[in-house]
Design brief:
This protein has a two-stranded antiparallel sheet with strand order 1-2. Strand 1 and strand 2 form a beta hairpin. Helix content is 72%, strand content 3%. It has a single domain, classed as Orthogonal Bundle (MetI-like fold). It is mainly α and 294 residues long. Helix 12 packs antiparallel against helix 13.
Length: 294
């Protein structure tokens, strides 16, 4: 009876996953293997034209650019999020600081992007300051380049990195840092050799939470980027709305999905292997706690 009750509890979750995840994914997979319709859509005819078209040098160039921007933006996000998460974890006002981190989520995504446009634009806040200080007369082109895209992406996804890092650092035993310093380590060495290895899971989670959505970003490169900032998300949108090549859009979407999912699985499989290597190389970890007691 209890087993039947447990199955009933899982039915809503299963239905939700099938309707909003599995079914759309199956449609995308099917469309990627069909032929493009004459006036858009697809024709019920199996074809690999969409995957063949992905070998186009322009698409490969955009893929490389997307990967480069995603890696740089993720790395910068982690570099900023790590001290922020550490500061919040050591603070006595954690609730207030977490509230300040979460506040941007209450504002519409597009509103935040347009706020950056108002700051970085040719007639924006920064250029007004530079002109007032007589540092420039025509203004500086802050927008419509890769730098602007990376800057806005870091801002957009910074909370996704701060929260998991804070959660991991908050559970860390900070007396280990004091012990490392007593043993002769400098402050920087204690952070690198003691803190970072113990919060590796938080770093991995923060990296995934930022890299995956950045890799598929569409609105940010469209609104603040230029020709050198065109990313895979923009190609997918253009193929759906302008050229109406649904199979090609589906094949690119499937490639992005496979790459990001494969990355997640590789990291998930690597974690237990690393734990096994630690126990294999350090036999002291296999001894019971009371081994030295008599």
């Amino acid at each position: 009876m209890k087993k039947q009750t447990g199955l009933l509890y899982t039915v809503p979750q299963i239905v939700w996953l099938i309707v909003f995840f599995a079914a759309p994914l199956c449609i995308i997979i099917a469309y990627s293997f069909l032929r493009k319709g004459l006036y858009g859509g697809v024709e019920p005819q199996l074809s690999l034209d969409a995957y063949t078209a992905m070998a186009n040098p322009n698409i490969l160039l955009v893929t490389w650019r997307t990967l480069k921007i995603s890696v740089i933006a993720t790395a910068l996000t982690l570099l900023i999020a790590l001290p922020c998460g550490y500061s919040i974890a050591r603070s006595k006002n954690q609730a207030i600081r977490l509230f300040l981190v979460i506040v941007p989520f209450w504002t519409n995504f597009l509103v935040r992007i347009y706020a950056w446009i108002a700051i970085l634009g040719n007639e924006g806040f920064l250029n007004d300051i530079l002109k007032a200080l007589h540092l420039t007369s025509n203004g500086v082109q802050f927008l419509y380049n890769q730098t602007a895209v990376i800057l806005v992406l870091v801002y957009m996804y910074l909370p996704y990195a701060i929260l998991p890092l804070f959660s991991t650092i908050d559970k860390f035993d900070f007396t280990l840092l004091d012990a490392a310093r007593d043993l002769g380590a400098t402050k920087l060495q204690s952070y690198i050799r003691v803190l970072l290895p113990n919060i590796k899971s938080g770093l991995v989670t923060a990296g995934l939470f930022t890299f995956v959505p950045i890799f598929g970003a569409y609105a940010v490169p469209l609104l603040v980027g230029g020709k050198d900032s065109y990313m895979l998300g923009n190609i997918i949108a253009d193929q759906l709305t302008k050229t109406r090549n649904w199979p090609l859009a589906s094949s690119i979407s499937m490639t992005v999905t496979v790459l990001t999912t494969g990355l997640v699985f590789l990291i998930a499989l690597r974690k237990p292997r690393e734990q096994k290597q630690v126990f294999d190389t350090d036999p002291l970890l296999l001894q019971p706690v009371h081994a030295g007691k008599r």
